[in-house]
Amino acid sequence: MAKNQKLVEQITSMEDDFAQWYTDIVKKAELVDYSSVRGCVIFRPYAYAIWENIQSTLDKKFKETGHENVYMPMLIPENLLQKEKDHVEGFAPEVAWVTQGGNEQLTERLCVRPTSETLFCEHYAKIVQSYKDLPKLYNQWCSVVRWEKTTRPFLRTTEFLWQEGHTIHATKEEAEEETIRMLNVYADVCENLLAIPVVKGRKTEKEKFAGAEATYTIESLMHDGKALQSGTSHFFGQNFAKAFGIQFSDKTGKLEYVNQTSWGMTTRIIGAVIMVHGDDEGLKLPPRVAPIQVVIVPIAQHKEGVIDKATELKDKISKIARVKLDISDKMPGWKFSEYEMKGVPIRLEVGPKDIEKNQVVLVRRDTREKIFVSMDELETKIPELLEDIHNSMYEAAKKAREEKTSSAKTMDEFKDIVENKTGFVKAMWCGDRSCEDKIKEDTGATSRCIPFEQEEVSDTCVCCGKKATKMVYWGRAY
Amino acid sequence: MAKNQKLVEQITSMEDDFAQWYTDIVKKAELVDYSSVRGCVIFRPYAYAIWENIQSTLDKKFKETGHENVYMPMLIPENLLQKEKDHVEGFAPEVAWVTQGGNEQLTERLCVRPTSETLFCEHYAKIVQSYKDLPKLYNQWCSVVRWEKTTRPFLRTTEFLWQEGHTIHATKEEAEEETIRMLNVYADVCENLLAIPVVKGRKTEKEKFAGAEATYTIESLMHDGKALQSGTSHFFGQNFAKAFGIQFSDKTGKLEYVNQTSWGMTTRIIGAVIMVHGDDEGLKLPPRVAPIQVVIVPIAQHKEGVIDKATELKDKISKIARVKLDISDKMPGWKFSEYEMKGVPIRLEVGPKDIEKNQVVLVRRDTREKIFVSMDELETKIPELLEDIHNSMYEAAKKAREEKTSSAKTMDEFKDIVENKTGFVKAMWCGDRSCEDKIKEDTGATSRCIPFEQEEVSDTCVCCGKKATKMVYWGRAY
């Protein structure tokens, strides 16, 4: 490994300092660059390509489930933001305000959208008249701005990229179904695209979205034992509909308010990919989302026939996988660590001796296993291997999460887990806000969700000892 | 046509009032809705789907020519915007300023990006060291804000969607090649996706982009005889590189400044599609960009077997074209005018009598021609017909443009064309700004471009009579 030393030694070990390890990776894997703009990062080509893959997978699923894309303005007049009371209270403290346009001082401030419920509502109120106009299933791809005090690439930035779905329905039941349907889409994308297992559940009243009746969430667990909210889906009931007057005449001609949902997934999920899968060599990308699935590194590329053969292999593989051939003048060892840092799932080495034997060497990024494969079998072996890497990475992440998921029956057990073992704590809760507050104060852990899959850890609240109503996942979180 | 009357009578005739006709179409074809946000429109699903088709075609071409997508922050600190003198002078008067974040007053104003040269430059200065790092070929999909006084949907809005390419190169020649390459990509998309013929050329000094050494443009001609700038590509030389210190060491180790380009196409092009192809029945979409290429309208759909057969045809056609089946309870005549308004290229009618004869009726939106086709031949006939519609629309647009392109040797001729015939005026120019200003003052026409394909209309400047250096396309413009 001496050849790789230079690159590798620049990364902090994850066990020594997880936060610094994360910062090193986002920089060295060329995911982001810091800008001179407060709290905003630049998504470099490699990170943006990951986002494009997430985007196209989600977008396809949205369209398959009947959704249409639209685009709303990025600026929201202050009076519009104020129409729904809980919503403005939740967001006003963290928005950026435009107060000047050209050389004129505006008579009304405009906020840069932190989320677009208000704009969708205003539009829906205009275009919906009859039950025949329902449902409206809209989605929007855009960036939003929230004036954060402390920021970290992907995890919390002043501006981030996301999609926001906003739908309206004739009945409460339909809207509730939609809320769960989209939560399941997110869970599916986490598990089947990103190889990240998630816990599905409902947020407590304290943790729900500003203006929602219910917020559903998928929660994932990072390598350092902290949780990350990975996607949310909100049921609004008629809260916004009443504030904005979104009414329709039903089959009998009676005027009714619509029932509404919204749901979003953000570039924050890239942070989860880094922190669930990465190691001390760098990023480790799940194959289905990796911008480069196979990197070809020629060995002794100056020798006759090597680059020709590598190019031939590249052309062949490009039909079945996203492949890159690196014929730059760097040493192979240097290239090895560069693509390990970038988390490319498979490295293909081919040199004069391999060519003689009509074989190549495949090296898995996840297990570092080396496999010798005949050149004639590449078209079947590579897809199989990519599939296997996805499954192994998912299983490894699931195992890690299970090892870091513990049950607590008492506050002592609870504190011990949070401080020493870290990870998810499953514990019973009476349902009172005061216990939720006290747990946070005493341990730093917040309620992550009330999982759909309930277990009876005990029959009393871990905090107050009164009768428990629900089992809750708790944890320190990003 | 009596059945269609209700919808059709709501549209102003284009000959009576072209501006009102345009406004009617964007509303009735459900392209946009007005928002309560000053000068911003909502891109409704149908308009956004058109944009998605333009986007995916452009994006594919960008990637094929080696470009990578990135994402830069939407906010630019004032001092960064000011680094290139001409650039800030051009843009500062029309930007929106963020002055408050959360509850705090910012110490430095941030502008909402009107364009992102400055951010790309700041980033490039950090990531480029050696000639080996060049070229960098980046593109970004986003929205930008320009504080416009008067706005019209697509054509001029406070916020619009676009892509902005920003590239840096080791040599002037490479950068110039890139500038022309991307102009050609735009021309190709206009002609082959949107069926809009364009004139390629260079902008005069007066009309070029703020901070550029040269701006190239594609210009198209609308039905009312006004020109529309449809895409631009800028060569910056080393202007920005010097302002931002973007240097690299060349092969000999000498420090050099990079040469730079930028190029953009915007949602304004949707306005061109409307105004080049539309008619008094509404929108007329070129097949390759149409979100719905074939709409199936069942006749007497309550009769047994009609909806089944229509569904069967839909499934079949969905393999070769974007198809929609409308089984809503509206009258067929109402559906006819609705999809004519929406510019769907082919309407397929199928009723009990057609089913008996194993045939359908295809109606072209462009020529209104009716064609009877056997159900067994649909898979070959529909793609052929879509192809033919594209070609016919392109030829019709080209013919219309040629009829509205005239040469002028004197200012009297020039004025007569602009006022009575309208359209492009080809006229010679001495190269002096004063003549360009005078022509605008006297006629309202601006120089659209100095076309690559030069002709010698005469040998003297149409304005001052001095020796001419170039033939220029002039016209009133959007």
TrEMBL record, chains A, B:
Residue ranges constituting the Aminoacyl-transfer RNA synthetases class-II family profile domain according to the UniProt record: 17-286
Keywords on record: Aminoacyl-tRNA synthetase, ATP-binding, Cytoplasm, Ligase, Nucleotide-binding, Protein biosynthesis
Main location: cytoplasm
Catalytic activities: tRNA(Pro) + L-proline + ATP = L-prolyl-tRNA(Pro) + AMP + diphosphate
GO BP terms: prolyl-tRNA aminoacylation
Record GO cellular component, one term: cytoplasm
InterPro entries xrefs: aa-tRNA-synt_IIb, aa-tRNA-synth_II, aa-tRNA-synth_II/BPL/LPL, Anticodon-bd, Anticodon-bd_dom_sf, Pro-tRNA-ligase_IIa, Pro-tRNA-ligase_IIa_arc-type, Pro-tRNA_ligase_II_C
CDD domains: ProRS_anticodon_zinc, ProRS_core_arch_euk
Location(s), subcellular: Cytoplasm
EC numbers: 6.1.1.15
Keyword Protein biosynthesis attached: yes
Keyword Endoplasmic reticulum recorded: no
Superkingdom assignment: Bacteria
Gene Ontology molecular function, alphabetical: ATP binding; catalytic activity, acting on a protein; proline-tRNA ligase activity; transferase activity
Annotated domain remarks: Consists of three domains: the N-terminal catalytic domain, the anticodon-binding domain and the C-terminal extension.
Complexes and interactors: Homodimer.
Alphabetized NCBIfam families for the sequence: proS_fam_I (TIGR00408)
Family affiliation: Belongs to the class-II aminoacyl-tRNA synthetase family. ProS type 3 subfamily.
Role of this protein: Catalyzes the attachment of proline to tRNA(Pro) in a two-step reaction: proline is first activated by ATP to form Pro-AMP and then transferred to the acceptor end of tRNA(Pro).
Protein name: Proline--tRNA ligase
Gene name per UniProt: proS
